[in-house]
Amino acid sequence: MTAFHPINIALFAILVITALAIARIRQLFAAAMLSGLFSLACACIFVLHDAVDVAFTEAAVGAGMTTVLFLCTLALTDSREKSTPPRRSVPAALAALLTGAALIYASADLPKFAAADTPVQQHPLTERYLRDSATEIGIPNVVTSVLASYRGYDTLGETVVIFTAAIAVLMLLGRTAHAKTSDAVMSLHTRHRVLRVVTKLLVPFILVFALYVQFHGDYGPGGGFQAGVIFASGLILYGLVFGLEAARGVAPVRVLRRLVAAGVLIYGGVGVATLVAGGAFLDYDALDPGHPATGQHLGILLVELGVGITVAAAMLMLFLSFAGRRDAR
Amino acid sequence: MIASHYSYWVSMALMMIGLYVVMSHANLVKKLIGLNVFQVAVFMLYISLGKRADGTAPILDSAFAAYSHPLPHVLILTAIVVGVATTALGLALTVRIHEAYGTTDEDDALKRDSAQGEPR
What we know:
The complex is a heterodimer.
Chain A lengths: L5 H19 L3 H21 L3 H25 L9 H21 L12 H4 L1 H13 L5 H9 L1 H22 L9 H9 L1 H23 L8 H19 L1 H7 L2 H24 L15 H37 L1
Helix pairs in contact in A: 1-2, 2-3, 3-11, 3-14, 7-8, 7-14, 8-13, 8-14, 10-11, 11-12, 11-14, 13-14
Chain B lengths: L1 H23 L3 H23 L19 H32 L4 H10 L5
Helix pairs in contact in B: 1-2, 2-3
C-alpha cells in the first residue's frame, strides 16, 4: 500500500473534520453522535493498519456503547452548552498548539511509518509472538495468544478495572426506585411498529453473533472483550425499543451484579487451578500435563469466557444504571 | 519525511484537538467527549507503530510470511474497553453533579460554591 492511499487520505480527512466539528458545535446531542462517527472512521483506519481485533472492539465500543452512554447522560442533564468565553479558549488553544508543536518536533525521531526495520519489528519478542506462539500456544490468532496467555496478568488487571468501574457507577447511580415509565415514553415504545419488528428480528442474530465472536476468537478476530460488548449491545437495543422494564425482565440487575463478579472469579479461578496443578499463576500448560497445547486451549477458552461474562454484565449494568436514573426521578 | 510521518502527525493533530476541547470547554459532558477524541487519537498512534507495509493481520497462516506487530493491538484492545468503563464513571459523576448543582457547567458550579461561602 502506497503512503498516500486515497482511502487513507479520505479517512484522515473525515477524522480531522469530525474532530473540529466536535470542538465547535454547541449542541451536545450532535457532538455525541459525531464522536460515534469519529470512532467508526477510526475503526476503519485500524482495519487498514491490520489491527482487525482492535477495529472490531472500537466499532462496538466507541461507535455503539460510548454513544449510548453519552445520550443517556444528556437525557438526564442539559443538551446544550454555553458558548466558550475567550478567557478560556485562548490559553487552551495556545497550550494545545505548543504541545502539538513539541510532539511534531519529537516525531522526527520516530521510525518511518510501516517500515520493516523499526525497533518495534526488530524486537526479539516479535519473533517469539509471531513464530514460536504457533507451537507454544497452538492457536492462529496471535492477538488472542498474547492477550490471554503471554500477557494473562495484564488482562486479569483490565478485567478487574472494568469490574471496579461497574461497581463505582452502581454506587453513584444505582439506587433506582422502579418507578413507572412515563406515558410519553410508553407511547414511543408502542407506536414505532417498524422499529419493534426490526429489533425483534435483529436481536437473536446479534446474540448468536456475539457467541460466535466469543468462541471463535482463537481462530479469527474476536474474543471475550468484543463478544461481551456485542452481547450487551443486543440486549441494550432491546431495552431501548421495548422499554427498560422489558430489559430488566431479561437481565435483572440482581443477576447482573453476580455475573460481573462471576467473570472475574472464573478468570482468577483458572489462575488458582494452575497453581494447584503445580504450575505458575495462569500458566495453562499445567492444566493438562503432557499436552501443553490442550492446556493452553482450555485455559484461554475459560479465561476469555470470564472476560466475556464480566464485560457483558458490566456494560448492561452501566446502561441500566444510566437509563434507570431517569425513571427514578 | 511527509510520506513517512504524516500518519503520526494526523494522530497528534487529533490529540491536540481533543486536548483543546478538554481544557477550553466548561461543560463536563463536552470535556468527556474531548477526552474520548484524545484517547482514540492515542490509540491510532500506537496502532500505526505496529504496522508493517508488507504485513497482514497477525493471524498465523502458511500463506503469509510477514505480519503487523500484535503487541500494540493487545494493549489497545483492552484499553478501549477500560476506556468505556472509565468514561461511564465520569458520566455518572456528571449526572450526580447535575443533580446537586442543577448544571453541568464547571464555572457555574464553582460560582455556586463560592456564593455560598464554602471554602474551596
